[in-house]
Each structure stands twice: as C-alpha cells, then as structure tokens.
Amino acid sequence: MIPGNTNAPAVTGALDDQLGGGSDSSVSPLDGALWLIRHGFAVFPTDHPGLDRCAGIGHGHDPATCTDRGKHPCVPFTRAHTLDEDQVRRSFGEQLRNVGVAIGGVDGPDGARLLVVDSDRPGAIEDAAAAFGYRHTPTMRVTTAKGHHDYYWTPGSLQLGNGLGALRGKFDGDVRGPRGYVIGPGSVHATGVIYELVDPEQPPVPAPAWLLTALQTPAAPSVPRPAGGAPRQGGVPRGALARLIAFVLDSRQGERNGRLYWAAQKAFQHARAAQMDARAVANALRDAATRVGLSTAEAEHTITSAYNSRNAQ
Hints:
The structure is a single chain. This protein is α+β, with helices and mostly antiparallel strands. Helices cover about 35% and strands about 10% of the residues. It has helices at about 15-20, 30-40, 75-80, 85-95, 125-130, 210-215, 240-250, 255-275, 280-290, 295-310, and strands at about 45, 100, 115-120, 140-145, 150-155, 175, 180-185, 195, 205. The strands form two sheets. Strands 3, 4, 5, 6, 8 and 9 form a six-stranded mixed beta sheet that branches. It has a three-stranded antiparallel beta sheet with strand order 1-2-7. A hairpin with a 4-residue loop joins strand 4 and strand 5. It starts with 12 loop residues before the first helix and ends with a helix.
C-alpha cells in the first residue's frame, strides 16, 4: 500500500486530529501505529520510557542499565515489522510500547524507497538546503523532542544508507535509509514529548535532487580527533585493518555496535603498531558502520569509545 494513496482504508478524522500538531496526552502509540499501517508504513514495537526496565533487544545492549529509553527495538525489526492490524493491536494495545517505522518495509510508488531525514533541531534541514543554494521541500513531517523527521521517496535504483555524504558538517542530524528505522507518531520520548504529525494529510514527496546528490557525494572526513595526542602519519588501513573493515561490513542488525567496537579496538592497535593515522582508521570504520545501518552519531560514539578504551590499556 502506498502512503497517501486515495485507495487506502479511511482513517477517522478524530485520529488524524489527534496525531496532528497540537495533540494532547490522550494520543497513544497504538493510535500512531494504526494510522501508520493504514497509510502503508510497516511498524514494529520499541521500548517505552514508561516501563521500569528497557524492553529493547540487541547484541551488546543491557536493558538493566539502558538510559536511552523509548527507542530500542523489541523485535528484529528488519524481519518482524508488520502491516497487519490485528498484530498491531496485540503489540501496542496489550502492552506499553512505542512504535517504530521500519523504513525498508515501506513500498513506495513505482518502486520508490523511503528515506527519513532526522533533524536534531527545528530548521536544520532548511538550513542545510540553504547551504547548498536551495529551498527546503515540504513533505510528511513528524515532530520529535529535538527537531523533526521528514519523510521522502527516493528512486528504488539508488542504494542509500545512513551516511550523510556531503551533508556532513552542513546538517545537524542524520538520515535513515532502508536498513534503518525511526520512532513514529504517537510515541513518547523519554522527556515526555509526544511525536506528532504536522499534517496528517501530507504524504511523502520525492526527495529533491540537491538532497540526493549530497547524500551520494563523499564528504571530506570530519571525525573528531581522538584523545591521546597527535595521530601518527600513515595512509588508509590495509591488510589486517582491511579485514576488520570487512568484519564490520558483514554485521547484521542487533550485532553492529558490538562488532564495530571490537573491530575498532583491534584496528587502532594495528594502526599504532604501523604508525598509521588514527583519523584515517576512524573514518574507514565509520563509513563501514553507516553502510550497514548505524547512524553517523552512533558509529562515531562507538569508535571513540573503542579508541579511548584501547589507549587506556
């Protein structure tokens, strides 16, 4: 089913009003999940900050100590998403869960793929468009605790991941491609803010050409310089380091952070022995991690943690 398709099952005006801007605390993740599947968006349950303990899963994730509440998938979302209303009612009506949108589970018009631009502050994507000499193209938007999610269609022939490309340094946020997910409307952020649709009648529009070009254009490396002194001179990782990059590229959902952390520790060890530039190693690891679905921020955090752990030994 195509989001925005006039042949989609009708959604009550009351639900549209609830999920739109200015909604109140009566809006629930179930409301959001029902709206989403009726408009063709595949959903799955995630942790909810109202629970005493994180319900999320994933390799290396400890629910007992989790502090980033409300966002972790409760199921392997690349396989366990659904458009079935009965399953949605069971998943969100019988237990406390936020709703995730499985981006790769959404079929767009003429084979288009979904892309979600996640702005970490209001106006971030508008400012990025201006930096490239364009105006922002309005589309389906969901407000978040910090900014907003903008939903776009991209040509099915493009292989877009979660990398920022030339947006790096010009955009405060991330993008989510087919192997990623975002938290959907009706969900509750850890701060108590409810994710809301700005206009329930606005479907995703085709991504503007400037955005697609920027995402496919390699950017100059901008990974922060790791702590511990000036990096040594050297080139792009080779040999054992290349095998570690391949190890990251072979990661599956639920094991990506753990494999990246292990590979990064080993890679920095090899880099030190070979007097290679730590920044080049970090850049290669980050690019591999974003290709398998991690956000740029997640990848850089894990890589920096591995670097600091290796240098503390």
